[in-house]
Amino acid sequence: IHKFWETQPVGQFKDVGDSSLAEGPIEPPTPLSEVKQEPYNLPSAYEWTTCDMDSEETCLEVYNLLKNNYVEDDENLFRFNYSKEFLGWALRPPGYFASWHIGVRAKASKKLVAFISGVPARIRVREDVVKMAEINFLCVHKKLRSKRLAPVMIKEVTRRVHLENIWQAAYTAGVVLPTPITTCQYWHRSLNPKKLIDVGFSRLGARMTMSRTIKLYKLPDSPVTPGFRKMELRDVPAVTRLLRNYMSQFAVAPDFDETDVEHWLLPKESVVDSFLVESQYTREVTDFCSFYTLPSSILGNQTYSTLKAAYSYYNVSTKTPLLQLMNDALIVAKKKDFDVFNALDVMENESFLKELKFGPGDGQLHYYLYNYRIRHALKPSELGLVLL
Ligand code: MYA
Ligand code: JJ1
Prior knowledge:
The chain has 9 helices and 17 strands. It has helices at about 55-70, 85-90, 150-160, 195-200, 210-215, 235-245, 260-265, 320-335, 350-355; strands spanning about 45-50, 80, 100-105, 110-125, 130-140, 170-175, 180-190, 230, 250-255, 270-280, 285-295, 295-300, 305, 310, 315, 340-345, 360-370. The longest helix has 14 residues, at about 55-70.
């Protein structure tokens, strides 16, 4: 049933529960001279293109492909609409490879019809820090679906990752493939309940009126934690220490250094927001929270075209209770006019979801590793990784 995935070095369904298989790489690296030097063959009407994300024009083409053809919910009411600024940020972290930004064009029209990307990351799996590619934004134009183009694109990105002497990858998907290291649940916290109901994102609860619903989700005007402020460049060393220490408890998590923290967590307008708590006398950074901006297009609504969503990213609490820290995150997200605050049940998130009035969504997110076996599936709470 998985003609492509059966051929790949990933945990196979038939091996689930087989304790004789050790954790770690499934296949050893091959000498670089043995990595295929030419790109895989595409159907003759199409050609490979490396997408230069420094070029406004190319960035716009990728943006438009995704805006019109990327991930939708199960009822096709919403479609992710990553901004151009977001794509520039997500695809150009420290040490990125332009060759991993892979497009497919129609030869005749030069129109961009498919895309896949990778970015380098160091990911710790239990004791071992492994160099990996994070694969994201796999997209085939709606008119070219089900023609087995995706396996060719996956093989091509794999080849280009191997050329950089990297042999493992991490990725997430809304579909079940062989085989998830964990399956996470999406949770949603209404910030603008009237709009969410009007566009079909949520429904009026049983025995609830609109005015009772609006009151239920009301939040204070400003954060309540003393010393809660936006993260700045000067905070990078302290945030890195706080985060590294906190992340060490999870089975799978990124191994962030100061360069990574500056890129991934320093606030960037309409892309990523980060806040911390600085204690009044010691000026110590004790707590941290962050979220990224990912709007969705609302498909076919007369009144609204965009749903503004914040997604919980990395959060650390050592002094401020996580519940209070995340309530402050909701307050600032509401102030910034987000309609909804989304979170996965990863890390310690379960400890605040219900109390802060998040409700479970109809979507799940499956996490995968390529060429790395995990003995047992993880609990979502053992996962310390958030992909964009
Ligand atoms: S997840 C987001 C994926 N994108 C979307 O959902 C956007 C909307 N959908 C589409 O654009 C298309 O439906 C896509 C499939 C492109 C998804 N991950 O060409 P096909 C397998 C992996 O006929 P299409 C993200 O970006 C499917 O099981 N495989 O199908 C992370 C089947 O194989 P098999 C997937 O619908 C991506 C084959 O493709 C996915 O026209 C991580 C069918 O191909 C999926 N999301 O196109 C990629 N969906 O027969 C893997 C379907 O075996 C990275 N398939 O079941 C692996 C690591 C690589 C680097 C390694 C380095 C060392
Ligand atoms: O956003 C999602 N679901 C929403 C909208 C559902 C619309 C009908 N299908 C949802 N809303 C309920 C909210 C409600 C608010 C008050 C409290 C109770 C809950 O459930 C879902 C996630 O739940 N999103 C998707 O389906 C999008 C795709 C998810 C898979 C993503 C794949 C990512 C690609 C990897 O890079």
